[in-house]
Automatic annotation (TrEMBL):
Top-level taxon in the UniProt lineage: Bacteria
Pfam family, one: AIRC
InterPro entries (alphabetical): P2CMN_synthase_LarB (IPR039476), PurE_dom (IPR000031)
Name assigned to this protein: PurE domain-containing protein
UniProt-recorded Gene Ontology molecular function terms: hydrolase activity
Annotated GO biological process: 'de novo' IMP biosynthetic process
Residue ranges of every copy of the PurE domain listed in the record: 119-251
Amino acid sequence: MNKHAIQQLLTKVKNNELSVEAALNELKDLPFKDLGFAKVDNHRDLRNGFPEVIYCAGKTASEVEAIMTEMLKQDNNILATRASKELYQQVKKIAPTAVYYERARLIMIEKEVIAKTKSKLLVVSGGTSDLAVAEEAALTASALGIKVERLYDVGVAGIHRLLGNLDYLNEANVIITVAGMEGALASVVAGLVDKPVIAVPTSVGYGSNFGGLAALLTMLNSCASGIGVVNIDNGFGAAYLASTIILQLEKARKEG
């Protein structure tokens, strides 16, 4: 049950259109629903502003389907990460409106349209090989209600491509940089702007990249200030962090 549904429920009680007992019955599974193998967190939307996100890797198709079935009862928007195309075909049987983004490996089910923020997130990628992670970040943030722009394939091997797009950097409120190899993109971007930069190292690179470890260490050791670093290939985590920053900016704008 999302915030809007709970507000409607409480309004009905207030207006004597629904008994307290009936409202309690609808709220009985609000904290979480125990499925035996999983406890679906129905309370997360109230705490964090967005429902629980399903991480599909390591789960069976039947487990994901059961979790989604329960979440659909709450009429929430649903985001499932690291999902295969085969899993998506299974999900379509219970959620015909589900949309699959193959490159990002995301499944989205939109039950309620979320208005986009005025504040802007820019997702920047070093190369085309980083786009799977970059798209995971961009699409996740968009699902969270964030206005997203993309600036792809502007890595330091051809830095004129980045410098030729400084307007994009300057107009953004938060920037996510996604890069593999040596991971220098985050340092370059952070040295050019006065806003938070969230760095995502990817596992893209040759042998001594060590599956993204080289890029991770470069980003952690950056001499440019204002960089936060998430784990290797964690586009989702970067997007969620960026979203919390932007939503605080939106809150301050309304209160100001």
